[in-house]
Amino acid sequence: MLFGMWDGVYFHLGPIPVDHLVVTEWAIIALVGIISFMATRKMQLVPTGLQNGFEAIILFTYDFFTQLMDEEHVAKKWAPLLTSFFLFILISNYSGLIPGAAHVQGFQPPTSNWNVTMTLAIITFFSVHIAGFSEHGGHYLHHFVSPSPLMLPLNLVEEVAHPLSLTVRLFGNIFGEEMVLAFLLFLAPFIVPTAIMGLSMLLGAIQAVVFTLLSASYIGAAAGKGH
Prior knowledge:
- It is a single chain.
- By secondary structure, this protein is mostly helical.
- It has one domain (3-223).
- 67% of the residues lie in helices and 4% in strands.
- It has helices spanning 20-40, 49-65, 72-95, 114-136, 152-187, 194-223, and strands at 9-13, 16-19.
- The chain has a two-stranded antiparallel ribbon with strand order 1-2.
- Strand 1 (9-13) and strand 2 (16-19) form a beta hairpin.
- Helix 1 packs across helix 3 and helix 4 runs antiparallel to helix 5 (152-187).
- The model is unreliable at 1-6 (pLDDT under 50).
């Protein structure tokens, strides 16, 4: 009876309801924060253990995602955001692979909800324009009317299309994957074929890479010399 009345809201912060999705996000953020703290609390010149693994992730994201940026100082400025995107999305995607997750009342990988993917896309949207203005000042606005003032409507549509495509792409892929896994778990609870789980891990990593790579390309284009 209790589960039948369950509406997904765990508690309220004043008038703001805190549901299962927010709690899952907090858990993922706390996990990333704890790992980051443990890896960096005793930094060594020659890294070992957790520090070594964490530095490998940082170097991977910096080298892979910031290669689209013309200036090194721009890459260094935005690398923390891109790394945070990658880790949060990757762990969110993989959270749906926890054994029995589809049968846990209220459990839902954050990236399978469009509110979360839209929020990430909006962060990218504002980051793009912040990067553009910080590198080019008021001259950045010129690209909205380039190569002709007649292109203004199309350029504005393009700016809106970027976060929309980021939102729909990540949400659609992860939501669809969750539906397939939930159906398979319904047929065979807790026993999902290894091939399907492996494919889900691959798709989860690909979606994290694609979202972060596109965000990096948009930021790099806004901050690049072309503007």
